[in-house]
Amino acid sequence: MAPTSGVIDEVNTVDEYSWKNSGGAFRGGLSISIIGDDGVRYYGSHFSKIYKKVIPGYQVTAGELLALVGTSGDAAGLAPHVHFGISWPTKAGIWWVRRGEIYPWKYLDAWKAGKDLNPAKEVSAKLKKVGTVPKHVGY
User: Fold this and answer.
1) What is the pLDDT of residues 63-76, one digit of tens each?
2) 6-130 CATH choice from 2.30.29, 2.70.70, 2.20.25, 2.60.40
3) How far is CA 110 from CA 107, 115, 117, 119, in A?
């Protein structure tokens, strides 16, 4: 489900990950990035299915069903789950930022408890610290 209202930024509907094609850009398999109305990028990956309506530019509302949990990308062989990343908007192809720059658990726990905790302030502070495109290390 969409964690917030916003617009779909990027969608990967083809799982290109394999042992021969294992670079970081492919590890998420089927994935979706949303630029929230708060200016934060929310990223989910490892889906088994992404609904056809989910295309770049599509306006989503918080709680809207967008995809089904799965094991695409490097999650093959693991329990179905969603990799959830929080970061700032970037140009296309900056996958290491898209996968998450902010540790999401405190936000996920707060939302589960019905609290309205927004990561925008933490995202802004991290962006100021590292710059728009921090270097990625490995994978």
Assistant:
1) 999 999 999 999 99
2) 2.70.70
3) 5, 5, 6, 11
